[in-house]
């Protein structure tokens, strides 16, 4: 009889290599928000996959790169801290650009950690197969990876094989969470992230990086399959507020309509979503604001 496996898998990599997309693919459900823009993930997001003989607990982390301001440094620290309690580390690089300056930074971090490291070369659907072997050879010389596996997180290529390898390298143990639990994130945090995702996908230039979302209320209506959700979108400047609202409120309406559909999937009810936009110029530097927004532990 095979023994049960369980443990934590920290997913790390530089921004925009597909960490969240891969975790969502492996879970079979959306837990981490995704967008084509780097640094979409700001906090450590847990995803729990319960299998017949194993429980794999994924830790999706912000992208690691050369830190900028205070909030950016906090995100990088969140990612590196996730390595400490991990049983296995999943380092994701991308096939079209497999070893950037930020990857060199991550390599130096991984040289100092104890858990085994499995390398995932993502986005193989974007390169010719002949380019993969030299990339694999190059990485094999850098670190004693337990496995190197090329995948496409968007198309699902090799993700079933990756799942089986993760289980293989996890330690024996009992389930650490209820078998029907998908994440440890509070409902309000997930709703805020779904709204922020729609901002990232709807508004361009640098505006999304100045945005934070705080969910004020989530109230089921009595006797109806309807939930009232109220949330505030914070920005740093009046000009950004104007962009988020849009002419005649058109942009805010678009963001709200798209976010509402995602929130309804999450809650399993119809949703009445009310959004406000407020300016708070210092939120990325204010510890109290970062705690309220869920980016800093109280």
From TrEMBL:
An essential GTPase that binds both GDP and GTP, with rapid nucleotide exchange. Plays a role in 16S rRNA processing and 30S ribosomal subunit biogenesis and possibly also in cell cycle regulation and energy metabolism. It comes from Candidatus Methylomirabilis tolerans. GO terms for biological process: ribosomal small subunit assembly. It comes from the Bacteria. NCBIfam families: era, PRK00089.1, small_GTP. Monomer. Residues 60-63 are annotated as: G3. Residues 13-20 are annotated as: G1. This is GTPase Era. GTP binds at residues 13-20, 60-64, 122-125. It is found in: Cytoplasm; Cell membrane. PANTHER family: GTPASE ERA (PTHR42698), GTPASE ERA, MITOCHONDRIAL (PTHR42698:SF1). GO terms for molecular function: GTP binding; GTPase activity; ribosomal small subunit binding; small ribosomal subunit rRNA binding. GO terms for cellular component: cytosol; plasma membrane. It is a peripheral membrane protein.
């Amino acid at each position: 009889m095979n023994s049960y496996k369980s443990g934590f898998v920290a997913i790390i990599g530089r921004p925009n290599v597909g960490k969240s997309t891969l975790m969502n693919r492996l879970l079979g459900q959306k837990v981490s928000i995704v967008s084509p823009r780097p640094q979409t993930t700001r906090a450590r997001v847990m995803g729990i996959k319960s299998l017949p003989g194993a429980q794999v607990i994924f830790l999706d982390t912000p992208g690691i790169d050369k830190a900028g301001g205070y909030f950016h440094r906090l995100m990088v620290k969140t990612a590196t801290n996730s390595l400490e309690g991990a049983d296995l580390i999943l380092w994701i690089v991308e096939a079209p650009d497999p070893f950037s300056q930020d990857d060199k930074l991550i390599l130096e971090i991984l040289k100092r950690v104890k858990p085994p490291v499995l390398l995932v070369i993502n986005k193989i659907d974007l390169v010719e197969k002949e380019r993969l072997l030299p990339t694999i050879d190059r990485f094999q010389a850098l670190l004693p990876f337990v496995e190197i596996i090329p995948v496409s997180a968007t198309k699902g290529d090799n993700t079933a094989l990756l799942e089986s390898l993760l289980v293989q390298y996890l330690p024996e143990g009992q389930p650490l969470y209820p078998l029907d639990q998908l994440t440890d994130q509070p409902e309000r945090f997930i709703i805020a992230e779904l709204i922020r995702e729609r901002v990232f996908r709807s508004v361009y230039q640098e505006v999304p990086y100045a945005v934070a979302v705080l969910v004020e209320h989530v109230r089921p209506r009595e006797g109806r399959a309807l939930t009232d959700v109220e949330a505030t979108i914070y920005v740093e400047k009046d000009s950004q507020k104007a962009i988020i609202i849009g002419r005649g409120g058109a942009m805010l309406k678009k963001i709200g309509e798209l976010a509402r559909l995602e929130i309804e999937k999450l809650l399993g009810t119809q949703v009445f979503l009310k959004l406000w936009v407020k300016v708070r110029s210092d939120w990325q530097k204010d510890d109290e604001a970062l705690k309220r927004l869920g980016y800093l532990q109280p």
